[in-house]
Amino acid sequence: MKCAGLVAIQHQGKVLLLLRSDTPGMPFGGLYGFPGGLIRHGEYIKEGASREVQEETGILVGSRDMEDWVDTSIEYPKEGHVFVYAYRCMVEEAPKITLSPEHVGYLWVDPKNPQDIPMGPMTRDLLGRLKE
């Protein structure tokens, strides 16, 4: 089974969500989600999650900065069932965001009031868990 890592980056009570490009073939295109992605073969999960955050946002998050949070799973269109390791990371200062080509926007979202932001069910579920 494939694995993915994602990181809920939190700043002043809000969490960073990225808007995926809706380019044809892009999984979850047009939806907001947490920074993260598939773990490469031979890569430690936290290291892979950290790499994905840096690739997608330009933010350097070390594995020591990430707190284990929750494990879940998702069905990717091509990869099938993927086990997801989710981490939390609190940042003191708002980081500069440099988006990867697979993303076209970002928001800092209050998990208690995500409004009508387009996101998949896993992202909405995890946002709900941040409220707890």
What would your notes on this structure say?
The protein has a single domain (2-131), classed as Nucleoside Triphosphate Pyrophosphohydrolase (Alpha-Beta Complex), CATH 3.90.79. Strands 1, 2, 3, 4, 5, 6 and 7 form a seven-stranded mixed β-sheet that branches. The longest helix is centred in the middle third of the chain and has 13 residues, at 45-57. It has two helices and seven strands, in the order E-E-E-E-H-E-E-E-H. The mean pLDDT is 90. The termini are far apart. The chain has helices at 45-57, 121-131, and strands at 2-11, 14-20, 32-33, 36-38, 67-76, 80-90, 103-109. It is α+β, with helices and mostly antiparallel strands. A hairpin with a 3-residue loop joins strand 5 (67-76) and strand 6 (80-90).
Short summary of the structure?
The protein has two helices and seven strands, in the order ββββαβββα. It has 132 residues and is α+β, with helices and mostly antiparallel strands.
Largest sheet: 7 strands, mixed
Structural class, from helix and strand content? alpha+beta
**Helical segment tally?**
2
Q: Helix fraction?
A: 10-25%
Strand content: 35-45%
Shape: globular
Number of domains: 1
Order of helices and strands: EEEEHEEEH
